[in-house]
UniProtKB/TrEMBL annotation:
<dbReference type="Pfam" id="PF08997">
    <property type="entry name" value="UCR_6-4kD"/>
</dbReference>
<dbReference type="InterPro" id="IPR029027">
    <property type="entry name" value="Single_a-helix_sf"/>
</dbReference>
<protein>
    <submittedName>
        <fullName>Uncharacterized protein</fullName>
    </submittedName>
</protein>
<dbReference type="InterPro" id="IPR015089">
    <property type="entry name" value="UQCR"/>
</dbReference>
Amino acid sequence: MKFSKKHTELLMSFSSSLAHWGAAGALGTIYFTDWRCIVTLIPFYNGAFVGEPKTKTYTC
C-alpha cells in the first residue's frame, strides 16, 4: 500500500484531534504518576510539595 496524496489529506484532517489527544494523554500521565520533576513547574500544582520533606533526590 503506497502513501498517496489522499492519505496525506486524511492525516492532516485528523492532526488537530491527534494533537489534543496527545496533550491530554501527556498531562494525564503526569498527573496520575505524580512526576515530581515536571509537576513542580506547574503553578497550581506546585503547592502540593510545600513543606514535604524530600526523601528522594531528584535530578531536575
